[in-house]
Amino acid sequence: MKTIILKNQRSDIRNQRSVLIFFALCGFALSPLAQAAPQVVPAPDGCYPNYTTAEGCNALNFLTTGSGNTGIGWYSLFSTTIGNFNTGVGGGALALNNGDSNTAVGAAALLLNTTGTENTAIGTNAMIHNDTGSQNTALGTGALFFNVDSNSNTAVGYSALIGNDMTGNGVANFNTAVGAQALENNNDGESNTAVGSGALNANTNGNSNVAAGGGALRSNTIGDSNTAVGLAALRDSTTGVYNTALGRGAASNNTGGNSNTALGVGTLQANETGSDNTALGRSAGFAITGNGNVCIGEGVLGVAGENDTTRIRNIYDTVQPQVGTNPDLVTVNSSGRLGRANVSSRRYKHDIQAMDKVSEAIYALKPVSFRYKKEYDPTQTIAFGLIAEEVAKVDPDLVGRNPEGQPESVRYEQINAMLLNEFLKEHCRVQELESTVVNLTAVMKEQASQIQRVNAQLKLSKLASEVVVSKP
User: Residue 33: pLDDT above 70?
Assistant: First the structure.
């Protein structure tokens, strides 16, 4: 049995109160049973003042005022003098500790901890180098092995976060690693989460990454803010940032591409350095290597090398004529916003005025025939229409513009309305002319009738004159 001589029996008042409350709640400190003679004969050894338990060669050897400590094993809590509520089980566990509320289970667990507090290390060599780091949890052989001063890390699994804070900068905080060798090489990276064997294995300085799945983000070194969920998702990404991959093998070959989103098994498989791509659906965007592409739907593979292209499954095959009681169109503006086009209700309009002479601008438009460039129309079919730049010279309001303000399209639907206005104006003129012609015709008919009457009267008068002249 080991005898410990306490240099100072006075303990911190706060710690004393906490311990007394604990034992009171458990029903031991003040109960009759607690004051009665030991029921186990002979009485167990290793129980000392200030709620101290020590068992093993040199366990708690230098304890002075510390309270509520438990040291079991060769040199466990060896250097602790004023630390409180520490538990060390295993040879060398918490050997140099003077912090509070640490738990170490396993040979050399938290061996070099001095003032770090509220750490839990379970496993041989778990958190062996921790010095002042606090609120860390390590479960597994070698977990958080090199952590020195960093805080609030959680490592579960063989060698999980083994290299964390190796340089002792104290900035590798808030990391979580669950799985053998997860975040194994992390040094100064912060706020990373790795769940799965080898997840984020190569990460050294990357921050705010999330990897869930065996080998997810396995090669990432300094990339930040990536999310990979699924076996081998974003497996080869090293320096990429703001990538999101969900599904087995999603974006697995991406190395330095940024801001890609791959949702589905095998999505964005061929992409290595392309950025700003979005793929949704099994194997969607499989062939994509360029930038700014969108592929939606299972099997919408995309085309290698193309950029800023959107492909959606079933769009071309879905026939929906613009007829019936609910016809509509989908339009897109220069910022990429989709919306309904066929809205003509007064509810959507204001400042309504008659078009009047505004529509006369169409008389200055110059229709042409043309062919689109081959990259836009491989068939080279002849087309008819207007040139946006020429239309803009006639009326700037008749063209659509790109984000740089350049003429991009012609608002043919507005021209149709202007044509209708001119047609109606001409129709009114024709009606007026027809009315005038009708009136003139009526007048002419009346005049003809009058002429006929006059002619008839003249004939009668002439006949009468001849009769008078012919009498003897």
Answer: no
